[in-house]
Structures are given as structure tokens and as C-alpha cells.
Amino acid sequence: MKIWIKLLLGSLIGLALGLFLPVAAQGVLDAVADVLLGIGRYAIFPLVFFSVGVGVSELRQEKRLLRVYASTFKYLALAAAVLVLIGVVSVLIFPPERVPIAVAADKALPPVSVLDGLKSIFPRNLFSVLVHGGEFLLPVVVLAFLLGVNLDFDRQLTRPIAQVFDSLSRIFYHLNSLVVELLGIAIIALASAWIMRVAHAEPGTYRQILIILAVDVAVVAFGVFPGALYLLGVKNPYRWLYAAMGPGLAGLFTGDQYLSLGVLSKHGKESFGVPRSIGSSVYAVSACLGRAGSAMVAAVSFMLVLRSYSQIEVSFLQVLWVVGFSFLVSFVLG
After folding, report:
1. Alpha-helix runs per DSSP H in 150-256
2. pLDDT for the residue numbered 64
């Protein structure tokens, strides 16, 4: 049975169970879902580390490294810019109701520092990158990239290390494939926990903004992305959407970009035919930087907050600020 069919059936079973289970079961389901998320992400970090390292080495030998990474950042920037504009325009055309602004000093979050993030990417002890917590993939990607670039300065000397990277990449790919195969069962609990949180949440004044986001997502998924693929020469872009159903379902019900990265790594090779040298780099960078969907949600949220704070209409300069800042934020989220 195909993986996306397993995920779809598991999702439907989980949704049905979640709608009929008592509210008291939500705490247990959330705890089980948290464990299953850890299992789903079990092989991601070593898979990314060794695959990016050997992939970068192969691209450099083929003299395609700069071209592939330049294209990756170009398309990430285009996607982020287009989705931010869609989010801002949707709020301007269909302005939602203002929401009450409540400021609780005891719940204020500490400011996020980009410099602290850079310190984590380049720590004083390089080995600490490999034992970092499971929420920060970018340091692993950067180290793997640097190692991959230096794997062929003297091929006779570095060939054993390159072979180790290649072997471990294949081993963790197979381990990740096993996890993805089992995800069809785990998605039952994950979808149940997801639908219980949704069903028992009261959106209140946020209902309109959620509707706008849902419409934006539908426009992007079924209009913008297929249109972009068609312009890039794909004659039937909806077949690509069909092939991406597995990672899409995993991302929807887990909300975890790293778990869906594991599913995409398998689908990218077996459904899309993307070679490891390309997919390993593109997928890892895309999971860390230029997250267009998050940029669109940030833009919509900024617009909502600005409208709620002010009794007058949002000015053109404020709209430009939202567009620019949301775009930049998408490249530091990682």
C-alpha cells in the first residue's frame, strides 16, 4: 500500500476517533502524540547531516554547487514574497474584525535575538552542534555543508570519510523509510489529538482571520503553486500535488516541519525522482530558511494587530513595513 494512502486512512480513522472520544482523553492523546512525534523525528538529524555532507560533495565535484544553492534561495525568496503579498492583500480586501488587545506583563516573552542564533550556529566548541537540542536544525545543516565542501580537497585522502558519509546517509535513509512506513499507524493518534484540540477550541473573535488564512492556503496550494510549476515547464502540475500528499498530511496533523521533512525525503526520491545530491540540500535549507507559509501567516497576523491597535486605517507605509518585515522574518525563523 502506498504511503500516502496509509497516511490518509490513518488520518481519517484518527479524525473519526477524535470526534467521538471524551474530552478527558485529550490529555492522554496529547502525551501519546508527543512521544510519536519524537519517534517520527528519530532519524531526521543524522539523515540530514550525512546526506547534506555527501550531497554537497557530489555537487561540488559536478561543479553545480553554486547553481543549485543560488536557485534554492531564489525560489525561496520568490515564494516568500508572493505569499506575503497574498496574505496582506487578502486582509486589505476582506478586513477582519478588530480583536481586543490584552497585555499581561507576567506572560511577556523574552525578545528573540538573531545574534544568539548565530552563536548557536557557530559555537566555541564545534562538537556541541552535534548534541544540540532537537529544535534547531540549522547548525547541523551549516556544519554538514562545510564538511561537504571540504570532502574533496584531496580525494585520495578524503575518500574513506566520503564513503563513511555515503554509507551512513543510506543507512539513515532506510531507517527514516521504516519510520515513515510506520507513520500510517502513528497518524491515528496524531490526527485524534489534532481534531480534539480543534473541536474544543473556541476561536471567538479570531474566527474571521482563521477563515482568511484557510482561503489563502487553498489559493496557494491549488492556484499559486500549480501555476508556478506550469510556468516552469511542468505540463501537469497537479500530479506533483498528488505526489506531495504524504508530506502534506504529515505536516497538517503534526504541525512539525522536521517530521514532514522526513516524509518528504522519502517521497522526493521515490515519487518525484529527485536525486539525493539535490534533495538533501534543498529540503534541509527549505525547512530552516525562507518558510513562505510562516511568512504569510506572520503578515496576516501583523495586519490584524495593526488594525486592532489603531482606530484609523493602516497606512501605505505600514503595509510596506509588514510586507518587508514578514519577508525578512521568514529567513531567520530557522
Report:
1. 155-199, 207-219, 225-231, 237-243, 245-254
2. 92
Tell me the H-state helices in the chain: 3-20, 26-40, 44-61, 65-93, 114-121, 138-149, 155-199, 207-219, 225-231, 237-243, 245-254, 257-270, 276-288, 292-309, 316-329
How many residues make up the chain in this entry?
334
Cβ neighbours of residue 27 closer than 8 Å, sequence gap 6 or more: none
**pLDDT above 60: residue 105:** no
For the record, the C-alpha cell of 2 comes out as: 502506498
For residue 123, give the DSSP letter.
-
d(CA 121, CA 140): 8
User: Which of 309, 280, 272, 334 shows the shortest CA–CA distance to 117?
Assistant: 334
Write phi, then psi, for 35 (nearest 5 degrees).
-65, -45
Spell out the long-range contacts of 15-24 with Cβ–Cβ below 8 A and sequence spacing 24 or more.
Answer: 15/191, 15/192, 15/195, 17/188, 17/192, 18/191, 18/192, 18/193, 18/194, 18/195, 18/196, 18/199, 19/195, 19/199, 21/192, 21/196, 23/196, 23/200
Task: In whole angstroms, give the CA distance from residue 209 to residue 29.
Answer: 28
- What 8-state DSSP symbol labels residue 260? H
Q: Does the model's pTM come out above 0.90?
A: no
Assigned C-alpha cell, 333: 525563523
pLDDT on residue 111: 73
List the one residue out of 6, 16, 41 whose CA is nearest residue 245: 6
pLDDT of residue 172: 95
- Give the Cβ contact number of residue 12 at 10 Å: 13
How far is Cα of residue 176 from the mean position of the Cα atoms in its chain? 17
Query: For the segment 138-151, what is each residue's pLDDT rounded down to a tens digit?
Result: 899 999 999 999 98
pLDDT at 270: 85
pLDDT value at 184 more than 90: no
C-alpha span between 58 and 53 (Å, rounded): 9
